[in-house]
Specification:
322 residues, four-stranded antiparallel beta sheet
Length: 322
């Protein structure tokens, strides 16, 4: 799709317009100043969980926060499955785990074909309870074990059907997958292709047709939005109308890798990639977002260790709903 210069976006799509998913006059509010680097995920117990400082934190509806897990293995993406169990991408430990209701830890995936993962980053779940996760490698690339049959390094997307039962569904269809999202009805898999520490790398959001067996159709890859030379897409969520909420952009350039032509915040897109709204967040880097609140009409946003919230008109989808 053709892209608009970033500076013109706010003039063509004014903030919080008549058809906006954001209530008129609403602005993002900072509700925590540290330890909110990643996640976030709303729980069936009506608490918000997020990652930061090597720990997983829980914020209850009354605003009080406490540490849920002290050694989180460098946790990044979080979600609650259909049984209310917390699933965690442990980037440092190179694995995906599940915290059972009794507090014990189950390793869902730590290897594929005998090789350790790169850095499990983000995850999503379909209506059948199958978990999909991305496995990029940011920073130093020594120690990477994932390769294809020709010996080329792989930063892929995987599906977990049961503990230890793992399939690779994306090998080289994206450069460096980050945020992932299964759409309503298991129709599509959205993948944030964010090769943001390489000049000229991908900063794109793609959509793939998702088959009933949990694989994708490579030929169905569709470009939804391109952040060009700016900071690309990170976490991706969806409201009940099918609109996409994508954490992306930068307020200060990180040259030579990222410009600030697309400002930092949450980009609200139609399923086809039309820019509908922009929610500005003044802190770099905007990493992820999640719907929550008692009626799922609050969007929580993590950025640079800070936590923000803003009300939304339409309830969002949460992971533990089938």
């Amino acid at each position: 799709m053709p892209q608009l210069p970033a500076l013109s976006l706010l003039f063509i799509f004014p903030l919080f317009g008549a058809d906006s998913p954001i209530p008129k006059g609403a602005k993002p509010t900072q509700i925590k100043t540290n330890t909110a680097g990643e996640g976030p995920a709303w729980s069936p117990a009506n608490s918000l969980f997020f990652s930061g400082g090597g720990q997983i934190h829980r914020r209850d509806p009354d605003g009080t926060s406490r540490v849920f897990r002290t050694d989180s293995g460098g946790s990044n993406g979080l979600l609650f499955d259909h049984d209310g169990r917390l699933v965690v991408c442990e980037a440092k430990n190179r694995r995906v785990t599940r915290t059972e209701l009794n507090g014990s830890i189950t390793v869902l995936a730590d290897r594929f074909e005998g090789h350790r993962f790169n850095q499990p980053n983000d995850l999503t779940i379909d209506s059948r309870g199958r978990i999909y996760f991305s496995d990029p490698r940011y920073g130093a690339r020594d120690g990477m074990e994932m390769r294809d049959q020709q010996g080329k390094l792989v930063e892929g997307v995987y599906r977990i059907d049961a503990p230890g039962k793992v399939s690779r569904i994306i090998t080289h269809e994206t450069e460096r997958p980050n945020g992932v999202l299964v759409s309503t009805g298991d129709e599509f898999l959205y993948v944030a292709d964010n090769n943001n520490n390489q000049a000229g790398g991908a900063r794109k959001l793609y959509r793939f047709n998702l088959k009933r067996d949990g694989t994708i159709d490579p030929a169905s890859r569709t470009l939804i939005f391109d952040w060009l030379k700016g900071r690309g897409p990170d976490g991706v969520k969806m409201d009940r109308r099918g609109r996409l909420f994508v954490a992306a952009g930068r307020n200060q350039p990180h040259l030579p890798f990222e410009t600030n032509e697309f400002k930092g915040g949450v980009y609200v897109l139609s399923p086809a990639g039309k820019m509908l709204e922009f929610i500005p967040i003044p802190v770099d880097e905007v990493t992820n977002c999640a719907f929550g609140g008692l009626d799922f009409r609050t969007l929580f946003i993590t950025a640079g260790g800070t936590l923000w919230s803003i009300p939304v008109e339409m309830p969002g989808r949460v992971s533990f709903e089938r």
